[in-house]
Automatic annotation (TrEMBL), chain A:
GO molecular function ontology, one term from the record: acetyl-CoA C-acyltransferase activity
Gene3D superfamilies: 3.40.47.10
Name of the molecule in the record: Acetyl-CoA acetyltransferase
Organism whose genome encodes this protein: Novosphingobium resinovorum
Keywords associated with the record: Transferase
InterPro entries associated with the record: Thiolase, Thiolase-like, Thiolase_C_2
From TrEMBL, chain B:
Stretches assigned to the ChsH2 C-terminal OB-fold domain: 41-105
Keywords: DNA-binding
DNA-binding among keywords: yes
Record lineage: Bacteria, Pseudomonadati, Pseudomonadota, Alphaproteobacteria, Sphingomonadales
Molecular-function GO term, any one: DNA binding
Matches recorded under InterPro entries: ChsH2_C (IPR002878), NA-bd_OB-fold (IPR012340), Thioester_dehydratase-like (IPR052513)
Species the sequence originates in: Novosphingobium resinovorum
This protein's name: DNA-binding protein
Keyword Secreted: no
Length: 387, 131
């Protein structure tokens, strides 16, 4: 295939809680919106990849969309599910097999923390019985270690959450759209130290759909070209620190952060796109908790470890900063429907590149946009868009 | 003292944790996998705190099998030098006194302190002068 894979249509069902609508309903809603945005009809769609973790098989939505016999493949890949669906969809076009397809993700989780069972992760039952099958413990312990190595303060964690809620005020698809003061964030009850309740995202609901096309097809449709310059999905390297780890390797030099799937996926994405972190105009980074955004700034090459304290103090990740991060409030304000979350980031990036961000629009017509997700048991997906 | 699972603690007094040493690479993991490629080895009783958090809400049941009554506890990652970093509880310390790098010692604790015959779970306490 010559040219790039392009995103020609986007759709989203509001994140948060929508009683009375199933996860699949929210996925279908997003697909219809994306089809309309692209100006195509469902029968023109040649293939689909769909991701959902807890809300049923995505391919069942052909009941609603039309029984056209379309190829429809379901993807489950932890928090990287949406990114994996998108990766697969772009490969289908790159291969030359198809020139118009769909990546869709949705989910609907019960209230409260994720309720994983040891057997699903190849762990012994006692690990859950003693109370260690809790994702928040890992995320808190990861930032606690990072804070001790690189001098990040709890106040800076609070500033990440404050920014998220402030940005989400202008994002119609976000869940929590009320600003929360830094003081209230820091003084809220601790959930898992050093994180207060405003510093963790919540499992949620929502749906996102993206219509992808070959460059030739995109030109025929007459759409502005939003090019998918890179989409990568990678797994963890040796000695990494991951969710649900009864033990972690001892390493010789433990004064630096360990290797992660994110570092690998990120380096690969930059290589494919032929650009570096300094060329990115806006970024959506996995922020399932406030410290994740900070650590992922470094893991994705945007700053050195320990520079985040200064970056936040200078407002560099604000909408009008040098590198706006999580312009729609990220997971902190949108919540996390696992199957949809990674695709929400790409949706937001397309909105920004088209200049449709309204009150949250990044100034000066951004040309490049970056997205990143991370999840259990050590998976990561990255995309780079260009217009 | 009955451990919450077989093969977790050695049978000596006081007990030590049992890890698994990869017969090929020498890498040590915890717990010891039920695989002939791993050899069960006793882990060091002393280590330092690698990282931690405080579990402030009662985990969901299942899988959590602790008492209904909930009191927050420290979730610790303890580095056993030259061996492995293990996840366990850290007891007998005020939350504000917990510091990365502090020395700790293995001391299993009951999952339900109100039961005389409670099962014991992997846990540490501050070692040396820190307690």
């Amino acid at each position: 295939m010559s040219g790039d894979v392009c995103i020609v249509g986007i759709g989203i069902h509001r994140f948060g809680r929508t009683d009375g609508l199933s996860g699949v309903d929210q996925g279908v809603y997003a697909v219809r919106e994306a089809l309309a945005d692209a100006g195509v009809e469902w029968p023109q769609v040649q293939f689909a990849y769909g991701s959902s973790d807890a809300a049923g098989n995505p391919d069942t939505m052909v009941d609603r969309l039309g029984l056209t016999g379309v190829q429809f493949i379901n993807v489950r890949n932890g928090c990287a599910a949406g990114g994996s669906a998108l990766f697969s969809a772009q490969m289908a076009i790159k291969s030359g097999e198809f020139d118009l397809g769909l990546a869709v993700g949705f989910d609907k989780h019960p209230r409260g923390a994720f309720n994983a069972l040891p057997s699903e992760y190849n762990l012994p039952d006692w690990y859950g019985e003693v109370g260690q099958m809790v994702t928040t413990q890992f995320f808190a312990a990861k930032i606690m270690r990072y804070m001790s190595l690189f001098g990040i303060s709890q106040k800076t964690l609070g500033m990440v959450s404050e920014k998220a809620f402030r940005n989400a005020v202008h994002a119609p698809h976000a869940w929590r759209r009320q600003p929360v003061s830094l003081e209230e964030i820091l003084e809220a009850p601790l959930v898992s130290d050093p994180y207060t309740k405003y510093m963790f995202c919540s499992p949620a609901e929502g749906g996102v759909a993206l219509i992808l096309a070959s460059e030739k097809k995109a030109r025929e449709l007459g759409k502005p070209l939003i090019r998918l310059k890179a989409a990568t999905m990678r797994t963890r390297p040796p000695s990494s620190f991951e969710v649900f780890a009864p033990s972690v390797d001892v390493v010789e030099d433990d004064s630096r952060p360990r290797g992660t799937a994110s570092r690998i996926a990120s380096a690969d994405a930059y290589r494919l796109a032929g650009i570096g972190p300094g060329d990115i105009d806006v970024a959506q980074l996995q922020d399932t908790e406030a410290g994740a955004e900070l650590m992922h700034m470094a893991e994705n090459g945007f700053c050195a470890d320990g520079e985040q304290e200064q970056w936040l103090a200078e407002g560099r990740t604000e909408i009008n900063g040098a590198l706006p991060v999580n312009t729609d409030g990220g997971c902190l304000a949108c919540g996390e429907p696992i199957g949809a979350s990674g695709l929400r980031q790409v949706y937001e990036n397309v909105v920004q590149l088209r200049g449709d961000g309204g009150g949250r629009q990044v100034p000066n017509a951004p040309k490049t946009a970056y997205s990143h997700v991370y999840g259990a048991p050590g998976v990561s997906a990255v995309t780079i868009l260009e217009r | 003292m009955t451990p919450i699972a077989d093969g977790l603690f050695t049978e000596e007094t006081p007990p030590r944790l049992i890890g698994g040493k990869d017969r090929e690479t020498g890498r040590i993991v915890f717990p010891c996998p039920a695989s002939p490629t791993f050899e069960a080895v006793p882990l060091s009783s002393e280590g330092t705190l690698w990282s931690y958090t405080v579990q402030r809400f009662r985990p969901k049941t299942p899988p959590y099998a602790g008492p209904e009554a909930f009191a927050p506890w420290v979730v610790a990652y303890v580095e056993l030098p030259g061996q492995v970093i293990v996840e366990a509880r850290l007891n007998d310390v005020a939350f504000e006194d917990v510091k990365v790098g502090m020395p700790v010692r293995f001391a299993p604790s009951p999952l339900n302190p109100d039961l005389l015959d409670s099962l014991y779970i992997p846990a540490y306490v501050p070692a040396g002068g820190a307690a």
